[in-house]
Design a protein that fits this description.
heterotrimer, A alpha/beta (341), B alpha/beta (152), C alpha+beta (386), A: 341 residues, alpha/beta, 13% strand, C: 386 residues, eight-stranded mixed beta sheet, 18% strand
Amino acid sequence: MNKMTGNGTEKGTRHIIEEGIRNTATKMLESGEVDVFIGYEEGTLPLRTTPAFITCPEDATRLVWGPACENNLTVYLPKFQGAVGVVVKGCDVRTLTNLILENQISRDKVKIVGVPCSGIIDRDRIRKVLGTEGPIERSMERPVRSAQVTERSLILEGDGFEFEIQLEDVLAPSCETCAYPIPVVYDVLIGDESMARHAKDSEAGYVEVTRFAELERDARFSYFSREIERCIQCYACRQACPLCYCPECFTDRQSPKWISRWRGLSDKILFHLGRILHVAGRCVDCGACRRACPVGIDLRLLTKNMEKVVKESFEYESGLDIDCLPLLAAYKREDPDDFIL
Amino acid sequence: MLDSISAKAPENWEPKIVAFLCNWCSYAGADLAGTGRIQYPPNVRVIRVPCSGRVDPLMILKCLTRGADGVLVSGCHPGDCHYIAGNYLARRKFALLDELLDFFGIEKGRVHFSWVSAAEGEKFADVVKQVTETVKAQGKPCLGQICGDERG
Amino acid sequence: MGEDTFKGLLKIAKEDLDVLVDAFAKSSYVVLAPVAEGEATKFGVIGGMRIKIPHLTTRPVKELFFPQNETLFSFDCSGKADSTIKTPDAVTPDGVIPDAVMPDAVATDGISPRVIMGVRPCDARALVLLDYVFASNEYKDPYYTIRREQTVVITFACPRPGIACFCASTGGGPYDETGSDVMFMESDDSYLIKVISEKGRRLFQESLPLLKGGCSECPCVIFEADDTDIRAARDAKAASEQLLSANCSANVPIEAAVDTLGRSTGFSDPAWEEIYRKCLGCAVCTYLCPTCHCFDIGDEETNDYGERVRNWDSCMFPLFTLHASGHNPRPSRKERFRQRVMHKFNYFVEANDCIACVGCGRCVENCPVNLDIRQVLSVFAGGVFA
């Protein structure tokens, strides 16, 4: 079976965290502190884990931890009845903070089990590395038949090849420049802060954005249009986003009907720009939307740019503070107004 | 369809501009411009809204994707909002929209924001002139046609 | 199938594939094959590009017959147009009817025949399932039917089924011929070609004389397969089937699951309460499914012009069943998830006597939360997922 939990070395960091998660879940469920504990368990494919909803303490042994724990589990919280424990990474907890801030879940109903994060892997990147530097042709999909995680690398096996990739080379782009690998809010922190990835200065995340902004306007428009053009409107990005919890999305509204039945490029642009505006000042760059997309659309530049604008214009960073007003529910007299005629 | 990005507008092109005007200030300002017989370009189509805070950025995007070449949003001056802070809240949203559109590659000269009070008929006419000129200067229609989605 | 699979085969070297494609194009077929689109792959007009067959395209071949968005007809009320309802007369190669069309006006003439290369057996089999819906004796969808009639499906057998594949459990297999007009089978450096249907035969009859081989006299890139080739192909088939069955998650107890779901208790089985929980409610599984076929029809209009449009819809969306009154008979993801599984493994079975799943594994592979249909079926089969 594919072990994505990565117990490569005896009592490695991941092993300690995994044990910690299991023990915490058992304790919380036994004491009745929580009704459900949401964590990760082994998936059915290599390089995958899957969300687990644990209700019996005995089942806590199913819980795992590793660099394939990609889902942002806070997406399940807004609908939850009863008390819930949830495993969160540094980014996930910031969406949770937003959910609390926006009254989608009350702080006392959720037990936050923070994990010092060392980054998660990006499957698209793995495919690229396998294709360009590795043993298989780029156009071949599903090459990997099994995968093993060691402390620093992935060992991938496929049809006629075994290939080792350094974890560092296939981290999700948002993890590479992550400024908050340690949860900013928690009830329990598993392990200790030294187990997390080294936090980057948040400016590091804006390098790409700045470079992109220097391109010609038409080049920028073409890039985004071409990305968006292949959208199949499955709305996986919206559904995977913990902050897209509207009971009825504007795309589903019949009156006014924002998205026409023609579903042309302009409708797709309207959806994506609309969504990005709706998460502006809230998005924490957890990358869930990008990972969920079946056709690999990457609009991270847009969300990252919004983050940068919000930070520079309003000195606001999403999801760090549990006792403030959401960005767009507040104002200052001295907010920037240089764009007004 | 994306090849038409650099398409030029036909000669004597007159852009369509949608203007969202707040009921309490800018709409009255436009009225004043009218009663004062102040001339301004006929390119704007006015939509009266209760407050500039009512203007959802989606409305602006929808205009652009459905054939408008430019959009103007105008409300009360800061501090004058009939609902106390509607225009302050709007200002934050518009700041984000402005940056988003620019980064996305939609020309800066398409979407405009202004504060026009009920007493500023002259200013309203000036704003409309300025907006019409900048939209015209883009020299081509906006998103809807570029994407080839505008039909009929 | 048995031994017949390998009778009367033709053979072409892998490197000569493009020569064959040229010949198809010359005999006025439009050739479609897998093309890359960003990180994803789908079927599109290849127009001179070299053919590359991926393991499985991200997007299934169904959209070439049943496009995601399609205008059925248009209407003009301005009084200026010649007629109030417009009818188109052509289907473009990628399957889109460019203008509006009235069903009666859909005629075969003017629509160029197409060849789709590199379809996998699962996708080809899915077309036969779609035929039950769009081309049954009772109801014939003209838009779908015309595309089906004008298309030759060339399937490439799967030498190496992937980790998410489970076609054999659904009644298909890596060398299954259902829905294929021609099948290509890998054998070392060549492909063995099996012509299956009349349409396939016609394609080769028309194209072979146009083949450009080493000399100008004869089509010397296509040969008859000899015993050695056939032996190699037979071995490849056995190896492929072996590979598939060795992959334990590819052996899904579908019959037992269909049985459970078909009982009166299937719909209200307590397992539904748990199974859907991690579902996010997106449409990845339905939109990438080669057999999902639900759609929504509506009008879209501007001033005095409008079109009647048919779009894909997904049972995973709340809007799918939302009534005008505001009532929704499938209020939560539980009911919506159940609908998807029940449709495939119960309702479709009742209507057509076969399941609406071909085991391509796209929903398994692309689900953002790894909610695996194989696991779901195993639960209903009373077994444990290995």
